[in-house]
């Protein structure tokens, strides 16, 4: 950066001093104690903000102003002192932009505008733009370590040093990794030694897979055979049932249904005769009652006018005697009916038992329950 103009007001011995710099090298000359060093201090106050405090303000004034004009910017440093001697105003002005309360460090905007920062050599700051009065030539009065750092930085050797350090670090890391990998390889080789017969194991595994596939096929075939067996069992079961039904049909064939039908008709007739017998018994009781009544009339020699009617009744009694003959025949029939009832009852029981064992009607395939059998009989 090129400084074109410097204006100093009330800084140390300078009440109002203006310097305009030429191209190239500029030399400030003058008698002792005329303010040559103050010019450099004023310039350093703007660029580095040193010296600190406010002792550099002219003793006859309460504020000082230092302005630096560069090719692109104008920077002003303004400091004012209170009546008590404290710093009242401490600010920078960059092209009408005010910077205050910035602490001990120069605002970064001012540093960027001036473009003369201190150089940082590994956390050690070196000012390459300013030298104090009576200071020796560049770096000759510095410590050997600082000289090495600065020269290395300026020549680029520090980059090489960092590269060497980084390379050595990488080499050490790589060496450790190589050692670790070597140990891992040895360990893996030991583990792999257990799998020398891997090809043989692979062949055995293939054989096992083939056997497994065959077993799976056999299992599928077994499932099919089980299904066929179940179907065959169902067929056998149905065959046994059909066989039993056929045997029952053979038993049915041995029954003489004609005889059963004749016995059934005879049973119906016997039932009708039983009804008639009951009616005759009732009539007999009526006749007996009337006969007793006639006997009473005769013994008491009652009025003969009523005898006619009684004779009529007697005639009826004669008719009844004829009916008694029939009744005797009926009694004989009743005995025959009783015998037939016993015979038919045994036949009916046999038929019930047969139909119960049969369970299904051989003609209509209807299930023979107890109610159905009762209705049929």
Question: How many H/I helical runs?
Answer: 8
For the record, the count of structural domains works out to 3
Number of strands: 8
Strand content: 5-15%
SSE series? EEHEEEEHEEHHHHHH
| Main beta sheet strand tally, sense and closure | 6 strands, antiparallel
Structure, explained:
The protein is of the alpha+beta class and 377 residues long. It has three domains: 3-117, Rossmann fold, CATH 3.40.50.300; 118-155, no CATH class; 255-376. It has eight helices and eight strands. β3 (63-70) and β4 form a beta hairpin. The chain is elongated. The chain starts with a strand and ends with a helix.
Could you give a short description of this structure?
The protein is an alpha+beta fold. The chain has helices at 36-48, 108-114, 144-155, 157-193, 198-254, 257-299, 307-358, 370-376, and strands spanning 3-11, 14-20, 63-70, 74-81, 87-94, 97-100, 119-121, 124-126. The strands form two sheets. It has a six-stranded antiparallel sheet, covered by helices on one side. A two-stranded antiparallel ribbon has the order 7-8.
